[in-house]
Every structure is written in C-alpha cells, then in structure tokens.
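Aim 2 progress. For Glycoside hydrolase family 93 protein, the working sequence is reproduced below.
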Amino acid sequence: MPTVVSLLNGKLIMAYEYSSDPAISGSHQFPVYYKTATNPEKFAPASGVALRASNGTVPNGSPYVVWSSAGGANGTSVVSCGTRGEIFVNKGFGEGPWRRVAAREGTSYTRHLRVLRDESKLLIMGAGKLPPSSTNRVTVTVMDIPGV
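Predicted structure tokens for this construct:
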C-alpha cells in the first residue's frame, strides 16, 4: 500500500511496504521502503531503498509519508509505520540519514499523518491494531515537526 507526496525539489517520494521472503527471514515481514521520482508514472518497478534509521531501526508495515516545509531549507519528510510508535524523519528529500523520533501516538494499522496549516505541526491519528480487537479506539496526537 503506497503513499506518495510532493517534495519542494519537484520530486515525489513514495513509501510502501515490501514483503520479505519467509524462507530467508523465517516469517513474513513488511519492511518500509521508499523511492523518489520526478513523474508519478515513472516509479520504476525496481525495488526502492529500505528505510533504516541512523540508529539501525527498521520500520515495518503500514507506511504513510508526508512532507512539511518546516525544519530547514529542504523541509522534512515524515514516515510512520504500523508496528512502532515512533516516526521517522529525513531532511534531505530522502537522501542521507533518517532519524527515529519518539511520538506520543501509539501503534496502529496505517496511522494517518497530516501536516497542519501551521507546517511546524504534525497530526498523527490511529484507529486500532491488527488483528482487530474490542479495544480499538480512534486516537489523535498533534506534535511539533522534529527539528523545528
């Protein structure tokens, strides 16, 4: 399930999950990958880059990506996943390091991210985990874009 957003440099960034081979890993995992392109119809079929934070953390499953003009000359790309409470930020249009940042919003299947009108603010919304359970609830957190 890909999500795509426009970047300030005229490119687009796409975040998506890519199932690993259970024969290699011992179980199905869905690490988050990303790729950039200048044309949404030209995201080549070749695999992108596995997102790995500078501390080695690999987000897994249910990716969502947004971009904010806040956070420096290149703005900030933000990626969420379905198995970790943190978000992952990059200030180089997908080039260079991704940084893992704590967020108060818990994990949920495909958390929604939205950059607010004040682009220094990020809304994170979740609505439950898989498999579905009777404890699912809609939650919303607003936080500062990291580094602003």
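The CA atoms of residues 19 and 30 lie 4 Å apart. This observation will guide construct design in the next reporting period.
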